[in-house]
Amino acid sequence: MTHYPDSSFLVSCYIPDANTPNAQAYLNRIQAPLVFTSLHALEVRNAFKLGVFRGFFADKDAASAWSNLEADLRSGRLVKTTVKWPVAFRVAAHLSEVKLGTRSLDILHIASAKAIRAAELLSFDVRQRSLGQLVGLVVAP
Length: 141
Hints:
The protein has 141 residues and is mostly helical. Helices cover 60% and strands 11% of the residues. The mean pLDDT is 94.
């Protein structure tokens, strides 16, 4: 089964927040690699930098989190996955018609998951989870 995390799930794996215990417990249960796309790279790195900008954590914490993420890429815990972006954007355009109040980047994550034929979406976002279920993804944790 292909496990597609949204970016906020990944951030919770590397920077402690309210969702970190649930994310870690889930990862310990599945012991499987997670998909990591260029969209994740952009959003997660930006989330780390934004957290520093907003004063939520120090620059050294963000740098350490990114270093840990890179180590997980090297070890295979995260697997770089190429998304066929024209396909993902076509799916996203279709999904934008669904009236759930889902943000564009959240729709793009769902569309990316569908484009790579992921079976499972890892997300704590209520609207994103609803959209994922609507299109047939198993939603966890």
